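(Structure overview)
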Amino acid sequence: MRHSPDGTVDQTAALAARTAQRGAGAVRAAVVGDALISPQITVRLLRRLAPEPAPRERARAAQAPGGVGALTAREREIAGRVGDGATNAEIGAALFISPGTVKNHLATIQRKVGARNRVGVAAWAWEHARPPVR
């Protein structure tokens, strides 16, 4: 730790060290499948990093096992909302279902598309189930 000229700990350096430790903890958690990143931040990252698939690729993915065709219309709707960063409560309110029902749908979606967690469902939705951005 750095000390200021008067001998006290530099608060900026202490804050930076704490922030770095939290960031490292978040990375370690993500590696083992835990999620410490908010859904809104996840969506921003996906928007920045995910290339928009070509129409032919989208059609082929829809027919493949685990593609959008493997999901029911309700599951596609929920996956899309997860891709938008919505919480279970927000999805439930929008679709007039309980958050528990949303959670059940998410478990089925994860199984069908081979996602390990909600972030995987969001990534899958961005890759397969999202309409092209115009």
Summary: Residues 11-31 form the longest helix (21 residues). The chain has a mean pLDDT of 74. Residues 1-36 form one domain.
